[in-house]
UniProtKB/TrEMBL annotation:
It comes from the Bacteria. This is Potassium uptake protein. The lineage of its organism: Bacteria, Bacillati, Bacillota, Bacilli, Lactobacillales. The chain crosses the membrane at residues 55-74, 83-105, 134-155, 167-187, 199-219, 239-258. GO terms for biological process: metal ion transport. It is a multi-pass membrane protein. InterPro entries: Cat_transpt (IPR003445). Pfam families: TrkH (PF02386). GO terms for molecular function: monoatomic cation transmembrane transporter activity. It is found in: Cell membrane. GO terms for cellular component: plasma membrane. Keywords: Cell membrane, Ion transport, Membrane, Transmembrane, Transmembrane helix, Transport.
Length: 336
């Protein structure tokens, strides 16, 4: 009842604002509440030395799925703190208005016109007649993909850390990867300890790509291959798939070629391992931020390529950040 009343107050307060302002204020609200929750004493790890501003910075980074931190998650928050972190990352990936929307749908209440406009704008969704089905599909797809990812990762982490920490780590990484957040609960070394592990690298890379493509792309693909009567893919879907494949191919080949004989990164690895690391780093640096190499040892040209990939980001309507490669291409097309 309290949570429902809280949502009602949010709805009343934001009812007269434009969709863009509502999105902005919803994120600001989550950041404020999240920083307070992470500041609570009972969510702190025994090794925590974080101040409120560290918690605030971490909250902003998680809600904005950036991946930056001043204090590592593993040494700052206990299990309860990490559960809060997962919730913040999930809200950041999907958006607070989407969560509010699903609560109204489950409560069989009608979304207001402004509420529909806000959710449509946040995901780039242009069809109003089945918005409820669209929101439900977002949640089902998200939890299904994250669940599969966590299940696969558990085969590696449960034997390594035991059931409790192993499952927590698997779920944390699955959510962080799908939401393109780049956070982990290992410490300041990120995924360096699992640099050549095929299961971890490929599962996390797959989650990052899935979230970065955008829900509209996946729903279009599902419609295409789920019906007997085929139809052509939308131009948006084709363009996103083409750009994603091109950027990942270019980044992987560039990293492999430039870093091949760099002793500080991948020189001492076998050829298949070099390819795996190059692919993972390209996927991660474009939209997430996990590290399987020491960036301080990477060559300047490689870092410049990574900067370009981070600037481009993922596709509209997904969980990734950046300028959105699709939007950038549209701007170039308008200028030409």
């Amino acid at each position: 009842m309290l949570f429902k009343s809280f949502l009602e107050k949010i709805k009343t307060t934001l009812s007269r604002l434009s969709p863009a302002r509502r999105i902005f204020l919803s994120f600001a609200l989550v950041i404020f509440l999240g920083s307070l929750l992470l500041s609570l004493p009972f969510v702190q790890a025994t090794t925590s030395q974080a101040t409120y501003f560290d918690h605030l910075f971490t909250t902003v980074s998680m809600v904005c799925v950036t991946g930056l931190f001043t204090q590592p998650v593993a040494s700052t928050y206990n299990m309860w703190g990490q559960l809060i972190c997962m919730l913040l990352i999930q809200i950041g990936g999907l958006g607070l208005m989407t969560f509010i929307g699903i609560f109204y749908i489950q409560g069989k209440q009608k979304l207001s016109l402004r509420g529909r406009e806000t959710i449509q704008e946040s995901f780039g969704y242009g069809e109003t007649q089945s918005l409820k089905d669209f929101i439900r599909s977002i949640f089902l797809t998200t939890f299904l993909v994250e669940g599969i990812g966590a299940f696969l990762l558990s085969f590696r982490f449960i034997p390594e850390f035991g059931w409790g920490r192993g499952m927590l780590t698997s779920i944390f990484l699955a959510i962080s990867a799908f939401c393109n957040a780049g956070f982990d609960n290992f410490g300041s070394t990120s995924l360096l300890a699992f640099q050549t592990d095929p299961l971890i690298n490929l599962v996390i890379a797959g989650l990052i790509i899935t979230g970065g493509l955008g829900f509209m792309v996946w729903f279009d693909l599902a419609t295409q291959f789920g019906k007997k009567k085929k139809r052509r893919l939308r131009f948006h879907t084709k363009l996103v798939l083409f750009l994603t494949a091109g950027i990942l191919l270019f980044g992987t080949v560039s990293t492999l070629f430039i870093e091949w004989n760099n002793p500080g990164t991948i020189e001492n690895l076998s050829a298949p391992e070099k390819l795996l690391v190059s692919f993972f780093q390209t996927v991660s640096m474009r939209t997430a931020g996990f590290a399987s190499i020491d960036y301080t040892q990477a060559r300047p040209v490689t870092l410049f390529i990574y900067i370009l990939q981070m600037f481009l980001g993922g596709a509209p309507g997904g969980t990734a950040g950046g300028t959105q490669d699709y939007d950038l291409l549209c701007l170039v097309g308008l200028r030409s």
